[in-house]
Amino acid sequence: VVKRLKTCLDQGTVDHSDFSMDPHAVAGALKCYFRELPEPLMTSELYNDWFKAAGEKDLTEKLERFKELLKKLPPENYNNLSMFTFSPSCQQTAVQD
């Protein structure tokens, strides 16, 4: 099912009704997509910085570090990440900050 969904996505011919009842197929296709990216979504260059920010005890400081790291991502990576993690209202705020 995952291979069929991936093929449909690659060809731009997805019939959502074929896959809407199988969340595992959608999740599998998404994992496959992330694995096939030319570089990690959060970038290898910023890998250690993400972990340092995640380990920050103070929530305000942690959020500030995450904002700074998001600004350092290549635009393509940021856009990909925002499609999967931010609500539309958060996207507006993140871009404006």
From TrEMBL:
Keyword terms, alphabetized: GTPase activation
Name one molecular function that GO assigns to this entry: GTPase activator activity
Q: Which Gene3D superfamilies does the record cross-reference, listed alphabetically? A: Rho GTPase activation protein
Where on the tree of life does the source sit, at the highest rank?
Eukaryota
Report any Pfam family annotated for this entry. Answer: RhoGAP
Concerning PANTHER family, the annotation shows:
3BP-1 RELATED RHOGAP, BARGIN-RELATED
What are the Rho-GAP domain coordinates in residue numbering? 1-97
Biological process terms from the Gene Ontology for this record are: regulation of actin cytoskeleton organization; regulation of Rac protein signal transduction; signal transduction
Protein known as: Rho-GAP domain-containing protein
Its lineage opens with: Eukaryota, Metazoa, Chordata, Craniata, Vertebrata
